[in-house]
Every structure is written in structure tokens, then in C-alpha cells.
Amino acid sequence: MVEFRNVSMSYDNGFDILKDISFKLEPGSMHFLTGPSGAGKTSLLKLMYLAKRPSRGEIMMFGRDVVKSQREELPKLRRRIGVVFQDFRLLDHMSAVENVALPLRIAGGTGAHINEHVEELLSWVGLADKMSSFPSTLSGGEKQRVAIARAVIRRPDILLADEPTGNVDPEMAERLMYLFVELNKLGTTVVIATHDSGLVEKIGAPRLHLVDGKLLHLEGSKKSRDMHGGSE
């Protein structure tokens, strides 16, 4: 599903934020992306959702060399990727329901069944009473849950989440993690950047661990191998 081969990413000043990163993610796998602040987690996610190109190296996604792909080819690939951004990126002129329904409508969906599906998901994440609310009236945690619902509504091939539980209480964090695990069981490849070591241990999925732009290890517990049907 995803393969990085000796990938580096530099800022305009020439500083390498990522250094010779190599790894493979199998279809239907689930991984946590961990590391201290400034280690390069968000930059790595940007490469994976095709918002940035690397300075060096190769990136293969969906069997395609995305570094060499033409820019006009990338939007089609991006539609196969769900992203939960740290800054949410909700559309302020749309209600919660409309924000979550947007990926379905872009894909050509119409009719009442879209809203029914969206409303069911928003209820599940605890926003049954906020469906008609606009982002400006929502708390940070509520915006986070709308953003997560929007990212998963189409069951993407890949889900990338940048600190998806950073603005919610521990009980809701576990509930959202359960949503990611269930999506993964349906076949979606999931990568979650997080500082929450408790959730990492509880879920037990393998970790991509970054320090100073370098991938130090790719590891997982026996629990993870049992849950996700593989080994590292």
C-alpha cells in the first residue's frame, strides 16, 4: 500500500526534517506514528497524503511512483486517502452534517441516504445535538470529532490521523480509537500520529518511531500481531 525508499525532506533553508526514511505498510495494516515534538511526524504525514514532495528518495502508493507522477494525477490518488488534520480544516460556511457529507457528495452521492449515514456517524461520536451547528460554534473537541467523521465517512483505502484524540477526554479518545480499529478491520490502512502512550499500549499496533527526522524502529507487540494478523 505504501513504501518509502530512502526518503528525505528538506526545508527551504536546506535543513533535513526527514532523513533517509525507509519502510513498507501492507494493505490493511495499522500503525502508530510516535516521537517527540519536532521529530518530523507531521512532515511524514504530509508526504503520505501527497501535500508535499520529498527532496530525495522514492515513494510508492497504490502501486504508483507518486514522486514521478504528474501533478494532475495526484487528486485522484488523494481521494483514496482520508486525513484528520490537527487544525481540523472544516469549512466554516457548512454545518457539521454538511462538512461530513462533503466527501460523499464530491464522489457523486446524492439523496437522503447520505444524510442518514452522516447523522448516524455523528451520533456515534457524540454529536447528535450538534448536527446543524457551524464550526464557529463548536468546541475544539467537537471540531475534532467532526473532522474524524469526515475523514472516515467514505471508508478510505488509507486513513492518516494527526493527533486525532488531542482535544477530547480519555473516554471519547478510546471511543474514537475503537472507530479507527473497526475501520482497519474493514480493510483500511491506518496511520495515527499521537503522543498518547496509553492509547498506543492499549491498542498494541506497531509503531513507526521518529527521533530527529530518523526512523529508529518499526515494532509491535504480540497483541498487535494477534489483532492485525501479521508480524514485523
Quick rundown:
With 232 residues, the protein is an alpha/beta fold. It has one domain (25-56, 75-228): P-loop containing nucleotide triphosphate hydrolases (Rossmann fold, 3-Layer(aba) Sandwich). 34% of the residues lie in helices and 25% in strands.
CATH superfamily: P-loop containing nucleotide triphosphate hydrolases
Number of structural domains: 1
Low-confidence spans: 221-232
Cα shape: globular
- Helix coverage percent of residues? 25-40%
Order of secondary-structure elements = EEEHEEHEHHHEHEHEEH
Placed side by side, the strands forming the largest sheet appear as: 6-7-8-3-9-10
Tell me the major beta sheet: 6 strands, mixed
Average pLDDT works out at 87
Distance between the termini: 16 Å
Q: Helix- and strand-based class?
A: alpha/beta
Total beta strand runs: 10
The CATH class assignment is Alpha Beta
Number of helices: 8
What is the CATH T-level topology? Rossmann fold
Percent of residues in beta strands?
Answer: 15-25%
The CATH architecture name reads 3-Layer(aba) Sandwich
The gyration radius over C-alpha positions equals: 18 Å
